[in-house]
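re: that complex we talked abt at group meeting.

here r the seqs, copy pasted straight from the sheet so there may be weird spacing, ignore it
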Amino acid sequence: MRSRFIGYVLGASLASAPFLGPFPALAAEPVSDGVVKIGILNDLSGIYSDFTGRGSAVAAQIAIDEMGGKVLGAPVELIAADHQNKPDIAANLAREWFDQGKVDMIADFPTSSTALAVMEIAKQKNRVTMLSAGVAMAAINEKCSPLNAQWMVNTYALAAGTAKALLKTGRKTWYFVTADYTFGHSLEKDASAMVEAEGGKVLGVSRHPFPGGDFSSFMLKAQGSGAQVIALANAGSDTINAVKQAAEYGIGRSDKQVIAPLLTYITDVKSLGLAKAQDMYLTEAFYWDYDDRSRAFAEKYFAKMKRMPSASQAAVYSAALSYLKAIEAAGTDEAGAVMAKLRGMTIDDAVIRNGRLRADGALVHDMLLLQVKKPAESKRDWDFYNVRAVLKGDDVFPKPSDSCPLNAKG
Amino acid sequence: MDITLQAFMAQLTIGLIGGCFYALLSMGLAIIFGLLNIINFTHGAQFMMAAFLAWIGLTQIGPWLGYPDFQINFWVALVLAPLCVALFGMVIERTLLRRLYHLDHLYGLLLTFGVALVMEGAFRYAFGVSGQGYEPPEILQGPVDVGFMLLPKYRVFVVAASLLICFFTWYLFERTKLGAYLRAGTENPRLLQAFGINVPVMITLTYGFGVALAGIAGVLAAPIMQVTPLMGGNLLNIVFAVVVIGGLGSILGAMMTGLALGLIEGLTKVVYPEASTVVVFVIMALALLVRPAGLFGREA
Amino acid sequence: MSNTFKIVLVLVGLALVVPFVPGLIYPVFVMKVMCYGLFACAFNLLLGFTGLVSFAHAAFLGSAGYVTGALMIRFGNHPLGMPAAFAAGVAAAALVGLAIGGLAIRRRGIYFAMITLALSQIVYFLAVQFRWTGGEDGLQGIPRGSLFGLDLSSDTVMYYVTLALFAAGFLFVDRVVHSPFGQILQAVRDNEARATSLGYDTDRFKRLAFVISAAVAGYAGAMKALVFQLVSLNDVSLHTSTEVVLMTLLGGVGTIFGPLLGAGLVVGLQNYLATIGDLVTVVIGLIFIVCVSFFRRGIVGEFLHLRRRRAERHKRRPVRNATRDPAPAAEAA
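got the structure back, here u go
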């Protein structure tokens, strides 16, 4: 692949680029460059490093080890880097990995701008991207790519999981506290649509700047609205601060008014502490203490990281494992063939259950409706949730959108 | 928009609480700038460091020392953490900043910026980014009825404590002999030295004092905001704008502007929440159009 | 032929062969260095040659990128799309520069810097709010279009076009510095009162310098948008504004080639540090501290300083005391 660039230079006078490669014989091999290389691009040093970060690479390594470190006789390698949440660094690294680093698939991407940037490049270079942390709807809608899989969840599914469950309990009036950027808007829009579809009513919205420091003003407004649900369409430290400050004012502590964060990772609950987070409903793609299989994976992870995996980190494991299995089934690591196999498989592993990959790249699978335990119920560290329901993928994931041209083909 | 007077008062009160933090932080910045001619970009990191020290004192230090029950409570931390941060600041001042006084302001700014990066990076490395919770002392837990709303006792305490500290600082710098020395030190350090005052030590202590104010704000903020390595950096931009509006170097200006901007921000959160951060910068631009020296600035 | 021109020729010559020597340097990396190098040169035009510190340069880089990108997405297919979008980007940056500079110029020194910082926050806010900037998703898949019939979608063609654009931009900055206008700017930097007493309307010159610097930063931003085919909030963030300070400082404030070298080092460092992870911010912070404390002339500045000292010793003149003056003299060759 290193030679591709020179290939273009000389392309006018010589034959097409692939023949200029240093190892032309390998073109016939099932595995390009004689190695299957998985790249992890995420945030190692910034605000998303707790739920992705180094843990994602560790999770991917567990998957590689489970495959015996080899696929189709070729070794499987792992490379990880910090995109520092800057799309141009992500794009630069991805290009270099694809052109010179023999990388075949890149996973993770906790920010949507990095995810969309690398998806674009991967499409050009005929490689695979798996968004284990990227939740942007654009990735399966207008920006969808045949070589991309959104391997955990998207904002719609997150909103749907929590919203439907709460609506079912008869909580019909809602108030949104929304982070004022695409991600927050998208969560809010999808959740409000569901609320209204079920005959509920959105009483008000407060859009706060990102990052916001003091949320008490918004939470008081939400309380004043008398809504039964205060939905937090934000993430990370914004969610944490909003919940924390709500607790300070005694908001959301009764059954009449509950707080529902629409995107919460287990690391957020850990940071808040059960005393503040107790009783909140939330939706996640993975909880380590769900069953024996998930626990078995989580213990392996815990042995290396001394913490339990977040849903994102667990999804990297599942993505890497499924990717390698698909290569084995396809008999090649060519991106198109691997994606075709992935689309044909039923994904069922320690993390993803009843999963099936759609044409637009959405992975439809079971989600968990969770409720945070009371401090007294928790038996050990990381024992945070009661699983309240298993949500069927078709009920929570969005219908294929017309804005993705891949869906039009039927 | 239907807003009751009650709700309006509640929002104003919340704005005032935010304003207290702005006031404390911007006063520290103003003092440091006024006497050292340095824009202290480390201010946010020092604020964060104090909050972390308080948290470490409450939850970590016992286990570290092998006495799990040992902890440094909020009240002790409120004194101790700012002192530690000030001490750390003074070491930086003595070893690094001191070498830059004869140079352009820019170099002091860049140095403190670098120090801030290192501090943030180090805390992030050690404690992650999700943040840590810090409980207010028991006596300040729970709400108090202030007529138009239920206000957490702790927030009432924050307002009282900040206003007290602001007033004390203003008095110290503007109304006492010590303050006069300090101001003379900026005008003509050599002359002051000739009067037998050790100017370098005075400058170090002043820096320490400014940093300690950031430290106090940090400890006060710990029970309100999640203690994270980025908590200071996020605030600092706004505080800079506050200082510019008030007039760099004006202690009274920093205090008044801080409080006023807190209120304005609070109101913006009611009317147009999206703009509640940027409103500060818009006001800054407007203020500069009307009064280039800042509202309380002395320099033309 | 000036020395600068010769060095540029050599650099361009070296850059020409990069795509032909596999494994030497990754060409996309070179393009990135060229974008950031020019960006740092624009910044240096203000800091090094006019004595103004701006924390708003990301606003210029980003606004040009957004405008160019958004126009290319809509009109990229038009044969004149690319040059028009490029020009519109540069013009947008110049306008933003006029607005920010016009306001900030009312104050001096550190006040000036703080005002630019605050105003650039407003630009950031707008970039988050506007629909056409794509919010935090940014703009992706920006088509590169074509220039004079050359299809830019090939990395190689883009590489040479970028190289030409870069060389033109770089020589323009050099030209400005060495023009009578540039001499006046340096007079303003060294002693504004004296320049005023000589009859120069210093505010007008500073404003013009600010706008030119903003336009060149925008030029780099438009280039970057086309090279990477993406623009994001990061391009208008304060973080980027501080990065350009680091680049300039590391390479040498007030030197012609310093910012370019600094940009190369910082971009390389980011790439390198990406794989070691975790401690990126600490390392960058330490570099700041070391540069400011021990190394204020920057690499190129230090080099020029040594060379000049040696030349002076050679002439057996008494060695002049190294100035303690921070404002690095214009050491442009």
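couple things i noticed - The longest strand of chain A covers residues 74-82. The mean pLDDT of chain A is 87.
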